Amino acid sequence: MMKPNWKILTVAALLFVGIPMLSIVGSGRSLQAGNAYALSTDINPVGTNRITEVVKWNDQAVVGVHSTMKVAQMRGSSPHKPFGQTPFGPGAPMPQPAPQGSGSGFIIDAEGHVLTNNHVVDGADKVQVQLHDGKEYEAELIGQDAVTDIALLKIVRKDGHTSPLPHMKLGDSATLDVGEWVVAIGNPFGLQHTVTTGIVSAKGRNLGAGPYDAFIQTDASINPGNSGGPLLNMNGDVVGINTMILSGNGGNVGIGFAIPINMAKSIVSDLMKDGKVTRGWLGVTIQKMTLELASSFGLNEPQGVLVNGVLPKGPAERGGLLRGDVIVQYNGQELADFADLPKLVAKTRPGETVTLNILRNGKPATVQITIEKMQERQA
């Protein structure tokens, strides 16, 4: 597969030419008992008020997250002198503005946890969240995962402010269909609570950004500042986190990408508990099965994933997996695509024993492997 040109793959949170910016703004839905907004019965929004209803139901849970990074070193100053020690004058050090920015995020529970992109808040010194009513709060970075580009924040409210916050319902991205209508809400170019709509253009897009790529592609307009905002289906459920665009000029050309919400749901508990994600590790290097490789292994068609390396003293070696084995099932799940195996292993809890159905020398076999914890050096 031809790799995308990363020179034109633009992270949607970076905006405002000449000013380093990082910020989050999102849209959210909060369903409190008794005030659910009635949706139309027809899932096709054409000729109905469904999109309007979805927006009314969710907009209050979209937040603007404004992040500030560390203050740049003063021009001409000694790194050992703090601000204010030297009088201002010709050639004197001057404080440089802290890089700032804005992006998007959305509240996922009544306590005020917010999902956004990791690239929106990574390295930030201070994060503030602006609610739909304009009120601003500081936000605590609860956890982040650079591999999936997902971060979890928590709105910090004063003591005594415990009223439930509006929040969104997380849907099931696995049930999305290509051609299905979706709505994106966010802060493109700093324009708060902007709504765009379109369809799901494709699913499972692998852009080479990481081992767990499976982006939702949409033609709903996504622009700089939309990063971290929600992608909603016509039931008003979050099905994705808007993340990046493919563009030659930094603006929308109808090709945007969102992280499937199921990926976020699978790691939220880890982020809340530990601030990071614990993933399983198999200890192999793998290769995609081609028609030529399949023929050399005596197979009529490509299937499974070829093991082209087994790491010493790793779980695969201890479980008896060999170089040249073809893994066709992981714990009963068919490996229809080469990228399925890393995702399944990553979701497996360390210490769990899994069954691999393999082909060894063209004959079916099984091995039992106890998955171990992935270390940073193994990622």
TrEMBL record:
Keywords: Hydrolase, Oxidoreductase, Protease, Repeat, Serine protease, Signal. PANTHER family: SERINE PROTEASE FAMILY S1C HTRA-RELATED (PTHR22939), SERINE PROTEASE HTRA2, MITOCHONDRIAL (PTHR22939:SF129). This is Periplasmic serine endoprotease. Residues 271-362 form the PDZ domain. InterPro entries: PDZ (IPR001478), PDZ_sf (IPR036034), Pept_S1C_Do (IPR011782), Peptidase_S1_PA (IPR009003), Peptidase_S1C (IPR001940). It is an enzyme of class 1 (oxidoreductase). It holds the Pfam family PDZ_2. GO terms for molecular function: 2-alkenal reductase [NAD(P)H] activity. Its EC number is 1.3.1.74. NCBIfam families: degP_htrA_DO. Residues 75-98 are annotated as: Disordered. The keyword Signal applies. SMART domains: PDZ (SM00228). Belongs to the peptidase S1C family.
